[in-house]
Design brief:
The chain has about 270 residues and is of the alpha/beta class. It has twelve helices and six strands. Strands 1-3-2-4 form a four-stranded mixed β-sheet. A two-stranded antiparallel sheet has the order 5-6.
Amino acid sequence: MQDKQDGKFRKKVSFAVVSNIALRDENLSLKAKGLYALIQSYITLENFTLYKSYLKSLSTDGLRSFNTAWEELKKFGYLKQLRIRDENGFRYEYELLDEPDTETPATINIKLDGTISEKDQLSNSNTSEAQETEDKSVNKTADKKGNETYEQVLSEVNENIKYDAYLLDDNISDTNKNFVTNIRDIIVEVLLSPKKTIRIGNDEKNSVEVRATLKRFNHFHLQHLIRVFEETTESISNPKAYMLASIYNAVKTIGITEKLYGWEGTY
């Protein structure tokens, strides 16, 4: 099941010429410029649709680092998010620009009839002020040690697995919705755990490595686990431990599951 709310990028012509304007923009960090170049290299490929979740899976710096670069591209006008209304709710598309556009909002709402929402046609002069306010709000929620709060981790995990989309999908049973919630809660609990080691199956693993692995868990892994657990008939003595091991192993075996379930090129 392809999650329609996992934003996809609009295609460009089939050659990857990265905008020198972006690469030489002193407002952008090297991290943001790297993300810009990476996106450009994928959206020019034939027979391939790039999704935001796939970009996240390529990041070795962690979700927070990815989000920082992502927000930079939006803030300085190189990346536009299109929130498109349809009969079933909303779907998302992204457009990478060759030149910055700071006159229009970073997020553009498109109504059911295909027209742009009137509020998005207004001046975007308050965007920087709104971003600054949001940044201050986020900073206040962080604890004194610089660690992520429960709210921040929960938000990140919800976005990774497209939690809201599952809850709103009438085609998904209540049992599977509860299953998704349990998976989500286990991931959040581990990410916030102060333990130095975490048991995965019969092994005690370094907690830093386990948390880094779980941060890569996305809705494609989740779909795989739903299928696996639907087919499971054996008795499980410790469901929580079993689910944690399954979450961890799903990320570690992504190459295998891509082959088995045909996910290549459908991100």
